[in-house]
Specification:
3 helices, five-stranded mixed sheet, 31% helix, globular
């Protein structure tokens, strides 16, 4: 098993690979997101991790960007590329797919 060096990492992207999300093509989302990160030189500063169920099956395929605490719903490979291009490169969350974001009152 690989142990990644996380020194200098600025964000963590969690990609749900539970049963429902897998049925909704989470493997393709994972590949698209990781390719977009590599193509944009973000590998050293954005770490990705596939998870089991994140508990948002109705929203699947679910992706979470930490430390921003932005939860995305209905992520497709195309949306994954958009998350990289807009959120991770430009700090502009893809509002059309945000299901939860941190507010002073917690996630909403």
């Amino acid at each position: 098993m690989t142990t990644w060096n996380l020194n200098g990492c600025r964000r963590l992207v969690l990609m749900c690979n539970g049963d429902t999300c897998t049925d909704r093509h989470s493997n393709e989302v994972t590949v698209a997101l990781r390719r977009a990160l590599a193509a944009n030189g973000l590998d050293p500063v954005v770490h990705t991790a596939r998870t089991r169920c994140l508990g948002r099956c109705d929203d699947g395929c679910t992706v979470v960007v930490q430390s921003d605490n932005i939860w995305y719903r209905e992520v497709t490979p195309e949306v994954a590329e958009q998350i990289v291009a807009e959120h991770l490169l430009l700090d502009q969350p893809v509002l059309s797919h945000v299901s939860f974001a941190m507010t002073p009152d917690g996630l909403n």
